[in-house]
Amino acid sequence: RSAAENISFVVNFEAIGGSGASLLVETSGPESWIIEHYSAAVERPAAFSFATEIARLMGDIGTDFDPFRNAGVPGLHFAYMRGSPIYHTSADNIESVSLRSLQHHGDAAVGVIRHFGNLDLRPERSNGTPTYFTVGPLLIKYPAWAAWVGLLAAAALLVAALRRARLSLGRVVAAAGRNAAGILGATIVATLLWILATAVRNTPSAAEAYALLFLIGGFALWVAHRLVGGERNSEFLPGTAVIWIALSLVTVLFLPGSSYLFVWPALAAAIALSVEPLSRGRFVGFVAVAAIALLLLTPAVEFFFQLGQPRPGNPDSSIPAVAVVAFLFVVLGGRLLRGVWWKPSIGSGPFTAPPPPRLERPSET
Questions:
Q1: Residues in CB range of 290: below 8 A, 6 or more apart
Q2: How many whole angstroms separate alpha carbon 128 and alpha carbon 308?
C-alpha cells in the first residue's frame, strides 16, 4: 500500500504574500460534496469557483498539495495571496504576516478538522462541478447547469427590448464589435503599462500595487472611451449587453465555474435596459448592475491582479502579464456601468430619452 492510500483527507495551507483572506484556491475529489461540507464547516468562507477552476487548469503549481491531488486524495487547499512580491525574499518574515490572515487560516483549519473529522470519508461519492462564490459571510452555490437559465433569460430579455425599440440586431452586434475592440485595445495598453511599472519597481508594496491598479485601470477606461465613444448612440447600451451575453455563453460552455462572473451582470443589464431611461426604475437598475458587478468582479480582479504581481524571490512564478485578466474585468465592468448609466439621445424606443415638449405659439386673436 502506498502512503497516499492511508490518507482519507488532506488540508493544505499556503502563504503567498503577507495578508489577505484564507482563500480556497484548490479542491481535490468530489467537488460538489466537498463544497457542501466546506460551507458547513467554515464560518467565514472565502471560495470562488472561478479560482478553483483556474487552479485545476494550471495543474501542478509547486505546492505541497500537488502530490496528494495527483494521488487522488480528496482535500482542500487554502492560501492568502495579498502582497505576493515579498514571497521568498528577505521581507518574507514574521513581521510581514497579517494577524487577521493568520487567524482566518486558523479558523478555517479548526472548522474543517472538526467537521470533516466527524464524517465517514470512505464511501465514494458522485462528483459534480458546482458554481459557487462568497458574498460577505454567505457562500452561494448552485449546479453548473443553472447558469444556462440565467443566460437564456438575459438573451430573451435583450431580444424583447430590441424588438420594442425597433433596433436592428445587426447594428447592435456591430456596435458590440466596436466596443469589444476598444475594450481589448485598452486592456492591452493597461497590461503593457503594468509590465513596464513592475520592471521599474519589481517589489511594490500592497498600497503601491493597488494605486497602480486604480490609476492604470482608470486610464484604460479613458482609452476605451476615446477609441469607441458612442455612449449616446441608441445601439451602445444593448451592444454592451451583447458582449456580456457572449462572454456568458463562452464561459457556460467551456469554463462553467467562471460563468457567474458574466451571467449575473448580463442578466441585470438586460433587465435595466428594459426600463425607460428617464424613470426611477432606470436608476434602480443602474444601482443593481453596479452592485452585482462590484460584488462579483472585485474578487476576480484582485485574484488575477495578485497572480500578476512580480515575485523576484520566486521568478518562475512571476508572470506580470497575467494581470491582463484583471484589467479586462476593470474595463469590461466600467463600460457596462457607463452604458447603463448614460441616456442616449439618438433613435427611438426604451433606450432613448423622450423629446422635449413642443411649445405652441400663442394665437394672435
A1: 337
A2: 30
| Per-residue model confidence as pLDDT tens digits over 291-350 | 898 899 999 999 999 999 999 888 888 889 999 999 999 999 998 888 776 654 434 334
Amino acid residing at 202: N
Longest dimension (CA), the chain: 108
Single-letter residue type at 324: V
Give the three cell numbers for residue 91.
Answer: 521581507
Sequence letter at residue 232 = R
> Global pTM?
0.88
Nearest CA to 338 out of 132, 182, 156, 145 is that of 182
- The one-character DSSP state at 95 is G
198-234 in b/e form (b: 16+ CB < 10 A) is beeeebbebeebeebbeebbeebbebbbebbebbebb
Cβ contacts of 258 within 8 Å, gap of 6 or more: 49, 50, 53, 54, 251
Cell of 362: 400663442
Q: 220, 215, 165: which is closest to 189 by C-alpha?
A: 220
Within the chain, where are the H helices?
31-41, 49-58, 66-70, 99-116, 146-165, 169-200, 206-227, 236-254, 260-273, 280-307, 323-341
Nearest to 15 by CA among 97, 76, 75, 95: 97
Phi, psi of 351 (to 5 degrees): -90, 0
CA distance 244 to 72: 36
Q: Which grid coordinates are listed for 139? A: 457562500
Judge whether residue 150 has pLDDT over 90.
yes
Q: Grid coordinates standing for 11?
A: 488540508
Nearest partner of 258 among 299, 205, 210, judged by Cα = 299
- Beta bridge partners, 48, equal 133
List phi, psi (to 5°) of 275.
-105, 145
Query: Of 103, 108, 119, 100, which Cα lies nearest the Cα of 9?
Result: 119
